[in-house]
Design a protein that fits this description.
It contains 2 helices and 5 strands. It has a domain at about 35-115: Translation Initiation Factor Eif1 (2-Layer Sandwich). It has about 120 residues and is of the alpha+beta class.
């Protein structure tokens, strides 16, 4: 097909097949969540890239996305604030690092304070 030419019909695509059916997709293995006593989490304090808003970031969780979301929901509920769970991190709005560290220790997690 020449540069700048237009497609007039699907046949002009050269025999490509478009499928909307189910195709075998690499299914991810189910990730088993480690028990709290074997988890080593880090509690960070950050305000970079968030318009000056302060947040507490929890990293290092090893387990399924559902378990991470459940832990994030519990922390946000206990602190009475909003936040999110993405990219394997729990982000809680506000500087609640000490309170979150205490909550996680009560749940049996090993928590390390990182940064100032």
């Amino acid at each position: 097909m020449a540069k700048g030419s237009r497609l007039n019909s699907l046949e002009d695509l050269g025999g490509l097949v478009f499928s909307t059916g189910d195709s075998p997709v690499n299914e991810e293995e189910e990730i088993n969540t480690l028990p709290p006593g074997e988890q080593y989490l880090e509690a960070h304090f950050s305000n970079k890239g968030r318009g000056g808003k302060t947040v507490t970031v929890i990293t290092g969780f090893q387990g399924s996305e559902d378990d991470l979301k459940a832990l994030g929901k519990m922390l946000k509920t206990k602190c009475g604030v909003g936040g999110s769970v993405k990219d394997g991190e729990i982000i809680v709005q506000g500087n609640y690092r000490d309170k979150i560290m205490n909550l996680l220790r009560k749940e049996g997690y090993h928590v390390k304070r990182v940064g100032g």
